[in-house]
């Protein structure tokens, strides 16, 4: 299999300061430095933050479906949106990778071994969660 070129960046946004845009933007910059084309949800909304979660997810699903791979940021397992993006990516046979600062696409996540629905259904309280990047 060839290395994917167009990567959708996924991770936690809700409950984070500035919707975690700074982390998404740094990760997108790093992936681009490594030669990937990146779909960054912090950029695709054009700075709009007042839409509902459902509206953002509807928009993002189209971007996931256009990608060749999904790269997930730390904390993805506590994000309902990231879990949904991973389920959709897996359903259309996209490789799902941990984001890696050195390689861009780190190790693949075996979706078969992860109960994404349990993560998606869980009550997520992200305030105070520290993502050191």
Describe this structure in words.
- The protein is of the alpha/beta class and 133 residues long.
- It has a single domain, classed as Rossmann fold, CATH 3.40.50.10400.
- The protein has five helices and five strands; from the N terminus they run E-H-E-H-H-E-H-E-E-H.
- Helix 3 (53-66) packs parallel to helix 4.
Provide the descriptors you would attach to this structure in a database record:
133 residues; alpha/beta; Rossmann fold; 5-stranded mixed beta sheet; 5 strands; 37% helix; globular
Write a brief caption for the model.
This protein has 133 residues and is an alpha/beta fold. The chain is built from five helices and five strands. It is globular, with a radius of gyration of 14 Å.
Any chance you could write out the topology, listing elements then pairs?
Elements (H helix, E strand, L loop, with lengths): L5 E5 L10 H13 L3 E3 L1 H4 L8 H14 L2 E4 L7 H12 L4 E5 L3 E5 L7 H6 L12
Parallel strand pairs: 1-2, 1-3, 3-4
Antiparallel strand pairs: 4-5
- Biggest sheet strand line-up: 2-1-3-4-5
How is the main sheet built? 5 strands, mixed
* CATH H-level superfamily title: Hypothetical protein PA1492
Number of domains: 1
Helix tally?
A: 5
Question: Can you write the helix and strand succession as a string?
Answer: EHEHHEHEEH
The CATH topology: Rossmann fold
Measured as a percent range, the helix fraction is 25-40%
Write down the overall mean pLDDT.
Answer: 82
Overall shape: globular
């Amino acid at each position: 299999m060839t290395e994917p070129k167009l990567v959708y960046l996924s991770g936690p946004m809700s409950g984070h300061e500035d919707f975690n845009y700074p982390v998404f933007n740094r990760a997108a910059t790093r992936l681009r430095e490594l030669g990937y084309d990146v779909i960054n949800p912090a950029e695709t909304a054009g700075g709009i933050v007042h839409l509902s979660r459902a509206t953002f997810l509807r928009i993002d699903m189209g971007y996931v479906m256009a990608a060749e791979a999904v790269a997930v940021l730390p904390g993805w397992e506590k994000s309902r949106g990231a879990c949904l993006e991973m389920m959709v990516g897996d359903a259309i046979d996209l490789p799902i990778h941990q984001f890696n600062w050195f390689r861009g696409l780190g190790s693949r996540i075996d979706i078969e071994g992860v109960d994404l629905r349990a993560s998606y259904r869980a009550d997520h309280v992200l305030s105070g969660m520290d993502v050191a990047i």
